[in-house]
Amino acid sequence: MTDAVTTPRLQVRPPEEADRARFVELFRDDDFMLFHPHVLSEAEAEARFDHMIDVCRTIPFGKQPVVERASGLVVGYTGVDHIDIDGRSRLEWGYRFVPEARGLGYATEASRALLEKARRTYAGELLAIIDPRNVASQNVALKLGFAFWTRSRVDGDVCDLYTLTLG
Ligand SMILES: CC(C)(COP(=O)(O)OP(=O)(O)OC[C@H]1O[C@@H](n2cnc3c(N)ncnc32)[C@H](O)[C@@H]1OP(=O)(O)O)[C@@H](O)C(=O)NCCC(=O)NCCS
């Protein structure tokens, strides 16, 4: 696939219709949705996957599947989505992996590779929104080059906001 980014252990590529069942299952799973306000209903999970496809139609580094090359399994996602904060539209970078694929450096490896792709087409700010208790996610963000910006409320929850400027 021409749009795919390949690392030693992973492939990061735009979503395909064939990924739907896997993501709907994951978006409904408590363990996968750790540090998310709630697991999604089936309808919400379907809508979230539709949205993932939509965003990736216009943004080459939209949230997209990460495939473990050794197993061929989709083990998570990384990339951006649109978010409005204080009335301003921004790009929010996020990642999420299945429990069996955590602690292996995959979030950093996949995100670094997709960030390289982002740098080729985008100049501007990226935002990361992280629960202050989520040390693993903070570590990933810092390794990717994000810097702490501010602590704020997002949808009522206290979050730490990090930024990274490309270009
Ligand atoms: C956050 C998450 C994506 C990290 O994925 P990962 O592939 O395990 O991340 P990496 O291995 O690339 O890096 C994680 C770093 O945090 C560290 N870490 C992991 N768990 C930790 C913990 N509980 N406390 C402190 N540090 C931790 C790791 O040691 C590693 O740092 P290091 O390279 O300096 O050793 C993954 O844990 C996950 O999917 N969590 C649930 C969903 C989530 O929280 N998404 C982010 C929402 S903002």
Structure description:
- With 167 residues, the chain is an alpha+beta fold.
- It is built from four helices and eight strands; from the N terminus they run ββααβββαβαββ.
- The model has no long low-confidence stretch (mean pLDDT 96).
- It has one domain (5-166): Aminopeptidase.
- A hairpin with a 5-residue loop joins strand 3 (64-68) and strand 4.
- Coenzyme A (COA) binds at residues 34-35, 94-97, 102-108, 130, 134-137, 139-140.
Topology:
Blueprint: E1 5-6, E2 10-12, H1 20-27, H2 42-58, E3 64-68, E4 74-85, E5 88-97, H3 106-121, E6 124-130, H4 135-144, E7 147-154, E8 157-166
Antiparallel strand pairs: 1-2, 2-3, 3-4, 4-5, 6-8, 7-8
The protein binds coenzyme A.
Quick rundown:
With 167 residues, the chain is α+β, with helices and mostly antiparallel strands. Helices cover 31% and strands 34% of the residues. A hairpin with a 2-residue loop joins strand 7 and strand 8.
Features:
single chain, 167 residues, alpha+beta, three-stranded antiparallel sheet, 4 helices, globular
What is the general shape? globular
Radius of gyration: 15 Å
What is the average per-residue confidence, as pLDDT, rounded to a whole number?
96
Proportion of residues in extended strands: 25-35%
CATH-derived topology: Aminopeptidase
Query: Any idea of the CATH class?
Result: Alpha Beta
| Side-by-side strand order of the widest sheet | 1-2-3-4-5
Secondary structure class reads alpha+beta
**Order of helical and strand elements:** EEHHEEEHEHEE
The total of beta strands comes to: 8
CATH architecture: 3-Layer(aba) Sandwich
> What is the helix content?
25-40%
Largest sheet: 5 strands, antiparallel
- Give me the number of helical elements: 4
Number of domains: 1
